[in-house]
């Protein structure tokens, strides 16, 4: 293998490792958001409307960061599958 292939494989490996680490963290984030929403007795829409600006920005970054997008999608799918059982 040449140097470029090795570098690409290392970058992809690091990216996959980051997403493997972030999936359980994102899962707990979804779980915590759902529990807090239920505890406050609000619909999802009401819950997001009542967030402070800082919370909205943090939530937006956690859910839409291109770096964590695969982990976020995986965690959300696992959460929904477990919740529906």
From TrEMBL:
Keywords: Membrane, Transmembrane, Transmembrane helix. It comes from the Bacteria. The chain crosses the membrane at residues 7-27, 60-79. This is DUF3949 domain-containing protein.
């Amino acid at each position: 293998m040449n140097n470029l292939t090795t570098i690409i494989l290392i970058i992809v490996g690091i990216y996959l490792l980051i997403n493997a680490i972030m999936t359980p963290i994102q899962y707990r984030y979804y779980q915590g958001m759902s529990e807090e929403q239920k505890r406050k007795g609000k619909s999802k829409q009401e819950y997001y409307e009542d967030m402070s600006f800082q919370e909205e920005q943090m939530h937006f970054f956690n859910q839409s960061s291109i770096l964590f997008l695969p982990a976020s999608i995986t965690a959300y799918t696992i959460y929904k599958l477990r919740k529906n059982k």
